[in-house]
């Protein structure tokens, strides 16, 4: 029997790539196992975004070394694989396959060569490809959410970021193929779909039929679909029709993740983000003026080379102007191949840490105030987990907020329940069920039972 074990790091696109890789392997006759000791093939799907990621990968590969005598084969895929390429064979000679995400459509061929005993198989030369990795065999391991990659790669080349080098050229799928996949996901019983892309709103339909906003609406109109999420949006390509579509289409989630990175126009220029603070705030004004309460979230980098106290202060005042519902704050880390690595990493580790702490403290205060708007609201919540130690069930609102709520019987994951919010915390809501649960379809329950036997994410 051909068995494999896969471990995945990184963003949602990487997690979903793993679902596609797993689906492809299963189609090629492999069985997924949850214990690496039982696997004939071990795949490691890597992320390279920050913090000397490649060192961590080599460290992990060293741990695999002890298993090489057991006849196992090893594959390193994803962003570190693309970045380090042949170097992986030099440092971990027991690895037989190294491939970046732009080459996954050649996986069946690479797997055949692996089975034939080849030991230096690479998929590293496809970053200029126009092709996307669409497969009918995607393994749907999330119990309540179906993912669709609508656009791959990135052409933005922000000064600090490895993604354009690891994932290659920006390329979109046709809207017809996205809609066909969305139909298939709805057919499996999923009611929630998340559209994925490094910059999902840079989507350009190769067939010229639909804009990004029109595509979202078309997905939201599919029979059975209750929630359409999309991530990540880039401010540069964020157009007002996206806000109008959210306002007009109740199935589109009223949440936009719109990473600003910095509130200072000077830093944004050095980062090559191609927008100014004012440009960004204009887009925020559109969402603030919307009829629906659109939740905003962001990513912020502190300590980019040359960031002054005033630049950092500009980021803090931007937080106050936008009132995000959550942010991911990161200390700048220099990454291989990026232009910023040649800039002097001028901000000390202490100052970076200090700025990050100030950022997070201020943001927590903002959330403490801003979440109060939900008190006494009735929110429709999708159940995403079982009961916690307090006996509350875990769910998520349309805005992607965590809602812990009490109810008599425990609803199945994927159910919807109306919840009255009785307490607010800086990053979660607490409430009580005020409706019966709407249970998921038999199709989704069957899909969940199938999933229960496999684990994709670590
Ligand atoms: N395409 C998305 C983000 C992709 S990476 C966008 O442009 O918004 C996810 C986040 O990681 C980024 O938003 C950024 O905040 C952070 N990040 C990327 N490179 C980084 C680096 N070198 N150091 C610190 N944070 C980084
Ligand atoms: Fe990286 Fe910038 Fe592309 Fe986002 S837009 S993936 S931060 S290069
Ligand atoms: Fe990491 Fe690659 Fe995603 S670097 S964040 S896995 S695009």
Automatic annotation (TrEMBL):
Keywords: 4Fe-4S, Cytoplasm, Iron, Iron-sulfur, Metal-binding, S-adenosyl-L-methionine, Transferase, tRNA processing
Reactions catalysed: N(6)-dimethylallyladenosine(37) in tRNA + (sulfur carrier)-SH + AH2 + 2 S-adenosyl-L-methionine = 2-methylsulfanyl-N(6)-dimethylallyladenosine(37) in tRNA + (sulfur carrier)-H + 5'-deoxyadenosine + L-methionine + A + S-adenosyl-L-homocysteine + 2 H(+)
Domain MTTase N-terminal: 2-116
CC cofactor: [4Fe-4S] cluster
PROSITE patterns on file: MTTASE_N (PS51449), MTTASE_RADICAL (PS01278), RADICAL_SAM (PS51918), TRAM (PS50926)
SMART domains found in the cross-reference section: Elp3
Subcellular location: Cytoplasm
Binding-site residues for [4Fe-4S] cluster 2, renumbered to this chain: 154, 158, 161
Enzyme Commission identifier(s): 2.8.4.3
Domain (TRAM): residue spans on this chain: 372-435
Record family assignment: Belongs to the methylthiotransferase family. MiaB subfamily.
PANTHER family hit by this protein: CDK5 REGULATORY SUBUNIT-ASSOCIATED PROTEIN 1, MITOCHONDRIAL TRNA METHYLTHIOTRANSFERASE CDK5RAP1
Function: Catalyzes the methylthiolation of N6-(dimethylallyl)adenosine (i(6)A), leading to the formation of 2-methylthio-N6-(dimethylallyl)adenosine (ms(2)i(6)A) at position 37 in tRNAs that read codons beginning with uridine.
Protein name: tRNA-2-methylthio-N(6)-dimethylallyladenosine synthase
Gene: miaB
């Amino acid at each position: 029997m051909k068995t494999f074990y896969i471990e995945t790091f990184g963003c949602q696109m990487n997690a979903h790539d793993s679902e596609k890789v797993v689906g492809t392997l299963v189609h090629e006759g492999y069985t997924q196992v949850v214990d690496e000791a039982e696997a004939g093939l071990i795949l490691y799907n890597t992320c390279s975004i920050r913090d000397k990621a490649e060192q961590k990968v080599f460290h992990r590969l060293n741990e695999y070394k002890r298993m090489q005598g057991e006849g196992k084969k090893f594959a390193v895929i994803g962003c570190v694989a693309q970045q380090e390429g042949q170097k992986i064979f030099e440092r971990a000679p027991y690895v037989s396959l190294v491939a970046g995400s732009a080459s996954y459509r050649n996986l069946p061929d690479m797997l055949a060569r692996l089975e034939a005993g080849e030991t230096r198989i690479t998929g590293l030369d496809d970053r200029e490809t126009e092709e996307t990795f669409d497969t009918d065999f995607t393994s749907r391991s999330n119990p309540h959410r179906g993912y669709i990659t609508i656009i791959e790669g990135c052409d933005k080349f922000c000064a600090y970021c490895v993604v354009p080098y690891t994932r290659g050229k920006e390329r979109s799928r046709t809207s017809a193929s996205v809609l066909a996949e969305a139909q298939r996901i709805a057919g499996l019983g999923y009611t929630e779909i998340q559209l994925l892309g490094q910059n999902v709103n840079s989507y350009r339909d190769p067939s010229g039929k639909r804009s990004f906003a029109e595509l979202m609406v078309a997905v939201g109109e599919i029979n059975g679909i209750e929630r359409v999420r999309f991530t990540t949006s880039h401010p540069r390509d964020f157009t007002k029709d996206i806000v109008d579509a959210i306002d007009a289409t109740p199935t589109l989630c009223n949440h936009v993740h719109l990473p600003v990175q910095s509130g200072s126009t000077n830093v944004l220029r050095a980062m090559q983000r191609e927008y100014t603070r004012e440009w960004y705030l204009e887009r925020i004004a559109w969402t603030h003026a919307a009829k629906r309460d659109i939740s905003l979230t962001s990513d912020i980098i502190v300590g980019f080379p040359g960031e002054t106290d005033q630049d950092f202060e500009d980021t803090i005042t931007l937080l106050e102007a936008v009132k995000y519902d959550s942010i991911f704050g990161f200390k700048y880390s220099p990454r291989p191949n990026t232009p910023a690595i040649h800039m002097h990493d001028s901000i000390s580790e202490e100052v970076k840490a200090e700025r990050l702490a100030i950022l997070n403290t201020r943001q927590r205060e903002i959330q403490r105030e801003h979440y109060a708007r939900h008190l006494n609201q009735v929110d429709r919540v999708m159940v995403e987990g079982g009961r916690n130690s307090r006996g509350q069930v875990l769910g998520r609102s349309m805005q992607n907020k965590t809602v812990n709520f009490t109810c008599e019987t425990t609803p199945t994951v994927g159910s919807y329940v109306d919840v009255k919010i009785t307490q607010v915390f800086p990053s979660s809501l607490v409430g009580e069920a005020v409706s019966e649960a709407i249970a998921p379809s038999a199709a989704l329950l069957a899909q969940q039972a199938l999933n229960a036997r496999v684990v994709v994410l670590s």
